[in-house]
Write a structure and sequence with these properties.
The chain is built from 13 helices and 9 strands. It is of the alpha/beta class. The strands form 2 sheets. The protein has a 6-stranded parallel sheet. The two termini are 32 Å apart. It binds zinc ion. Zinc ion binds next to loops.
Length: 299
Amino acid sequence: MSADEDRSYVHEFPRRLGLPGIIDVHTHFMPEPVMRKVWAYFDSAGPLTGRPWPIAYRDEEQVRLKTLREFGVRAFTALVYPHKPQMAAWLNEWSAEFAARAPDCLHTATFFPEPDADRYVAAAIESGARIFKVHIQVGDFSPVDQLLAPVWEVLSEAGIPVVIHCGSGPAPGRFTGPGPIAELLHRFPRLRLIIAHMGAPDYTEFLDIAERYPLVHLDTTMNFTDFFDSRDPFPENERTRLLALGDRILFGSDFPNIPYPYAHALYALDRLELGEDWLRGACYGNAAELFGLEPLAQR
Ligand SMILES: [Zn+2]
């Protein structure tokens, strides 16, 4: 797909569905040196990616912002995540500053199991954070680590959504998979977790979790694309539940770190043929409701 075809498909998509645009809950903006390290990691096809991963939108930050806006993305995130202690507070300072200069970005923050985590998480909320990101695979920590208990408490009280990469794809970690998340939700049932990549490859178990906990959402990041389907395809026999949980499915792309055009991520949902209402909810309505953005017009 050429850049023009990419753009025209993405433009046509919300228009056809009568949407004001697209809300993408899973995009990455981070301090330039960190982004470069992430790109270098993808380039090396290291053990956490498991295979070659050519990045489609490797541009300067201003260009990446422009690209998303040209795509008609009305709101997006700046998912940052630490891989070691004493990094999260600094990332949060950066993302607060980023959200201030990109008002269409939902102010994002993160944390790591460390003694001052509850303090800087409270500070991030105080300064306006609307969504958090946690990466269980890269961070290599348990979501039920004792040091995180006060953090989950605060987030649960505040009702702030947390995108959590907790699935065992593209490669498993020591604490990935549905088990630790079931344990976490058992302790904090009111957490608004957004399960990244729908928990792939353990789709069935994460659908069980979403059915059990009504505040749990699933983001579609990379799911259903050719790239993902070739390794972790969504089970055909779970389509009914995917449809039934339609009001808790959120479109995410992983922009800019994707090995295919942005349009393909939308097309991947389109070709599921789950109906226009499902698509309208997934690509705009559900996130608008979750974040209090301009609601979907009735049709
Ligand atoms: Zn991501």
